[in-house]
Fold:
Amino acid sequence: MTAVILAHLPSRELLLLLSVVEVTVRSDEFAQLVQEYGERAYSFAYRLAGNETQARDLVQEAFTRAYEHRGDYDPARPFHSWLFRILQNIYLDSVRRYAARHQVSLDAPRGDEESAWEEILAGPDPEPIQQLSRAEQGRRVQQALEKLPIHYRTAVVLCDLEKFSYEEIAVMMKCPVGTVRSRIHQGRVLLRNIIVKEGAE
Structure:
């Protein structure tokens, strides 16, 4: 088994991703799938996670699991839909594990008792929005996306950024098409409200 080494890939993000992928493969076909879908997977993971390190880890784990479970893949369906469902499930599992480890009761006394919880918990701290550059706008949208509940965020990212159809999203999210439409609509409304609110502050 040989490690995947794909140094000639076009994007910086994918090069960073693949520099840490430890997946071993028996054929060139899987290496081709990594090349073909790596950038889209990274983009989706980044929109979910909000940072490069976690996005790379998510994509690495998704490709690893896809390879390990390649026998479960139905070639009649698009590979990227299957891969994105794996990636989404990995992300949701990590969110659940994090939440379970970091639950804190706001009614419980703190150890040092010097500060109230209200003083410690982060509040909104918006920056002025004047003549934002494209990168700054992208950063703001990403921050707003991170404030959406995960099921709305996932639906909006898959539809508006990754350009999947409602039917493909329904398969990935394991829910009816009507639920997908509702989540996309509600997610867009919430996203717009967050951006407008932050812009007004």
User: Anything to note?
Assistant: The chain has nine helices and two strands.
